[in-house]
Each structure stands twice: as C-alpha cells, then as structure tokens.
Amino acid sequence: MIVNNSRPDSDASVITISDPNQFEYLITNLKKWTEYRVWMQAGTVIGDGMKSEALFVRTDEDVPGAPQNVKVEVMNSTSIEVTWTPPDEKERHGIIRGYQIHVQNMNPENVNPNAAHIPHTIHNGEATRYVVGGLTPDTKYQVQVSAITRKGDGTRSTHEAVEMPGGVPNKPALLVK
C-alpha cells in the first residue's frame, strides 16, 4: 500500500502482488519531490496478516517551474533591479538552491549573439531580488528568471521587457590641426 504522506491511510492505493516468489516491485507514476508512506501486508486465503511499519520515502528532485511575479525596474541608464517570488509550492520539485537571471539584448543592430544573452547566477535559494549592472544605455532588453534545483535550472518566467534610458554623452574628442 502507498499513500502521499499528507493523506490519511484510507486514501492508500493497494498494490496486489500474486506471485509469492516476487520480492521486488517498482511503483511508478508518483509525483516529483513528494513524501509517501509505504507499507506491506501479507495475506492468504484464510485472511490478511498485520501491516508492516510504514516506510517513509521521498521521490527525487526535478527541475522547478517558473518563478512568479517577475518585475523589472530601471535604476539608472546601465542598471535594473529584478524582483520575483519563488515558483508555486507544487512546482518547486525540490529545494530551490538559486536563480538565474537571463538578460537578452533585443536591439536589432546587436550582431554578436554571444553578447546578446547575459545570464546571471545567484547561489541563494532565498533570494527574491537582484541588481543587474553593466547594461547599455538606449538599449531594449528582455528579462526572464529561472529557479535552480540539484537537477538544473527550470522553466523560465514570462518575458519582461525593459528599455534603458539614454546616458550622459561621452567626453568629446578634441582634434587640433
């Protein structure tokens, strides 16, 4: 018998093994990163014996769902603050160990694809904000956030667009002839 640990024993699924020589059984279709109670009960034509003590097991981690409520605020011509909330509890699929902030340059004249995407990794599962600096004034960016478990980074959030304001002009060159 097996049941999600948050449910009562009466909700348990009964798995019948008819072969008395079968000593292993693979339970499938379980939810990711979920604790279950598993126990056995032997029976004969006369009746069932006592239940074994419950064994508590947890399924493996997986990549998480997308962070929620992503917002991007311009701080100055080269910096933005990105805020978010963690993925929904049912979508975490493990322990959130950090986040990745994905910043994509959306200007069509950007010809260097390697410079177009700037990932920033935060190794703090409790983080809910991050300041991205070093951006280019007068440039459009697309920002997404993904959460990280031991299995890797998960689904990215929806795109948030931001346009950086113009910065102060560079120092003019002085040419003397």
TrEMBL record:
Stretches for region Disordered: 151-177
Basic and acidic residues biased stretches: 151-162
UniProt name for this protein: Tyrosine-protein phosphatase Lar
Domain Fibronectin type-III positions: 1-62, 66-167
GO CC annotations, alphabetized: membrane
Organism phylogeny: Eukaryota, Metazoa, Ecdysozoa, Arthropoda, Crustacea
Pfam assignment, any one: fn3
Domain of life: Eukaryota
InterPro entries: FN3_dom (IPR003961), FN3_sf (IPR036116), Ig-like_fold (IPR013783), RTP_Phos/Ushers (IPR050713)
Name of the coding gene: Lar_1
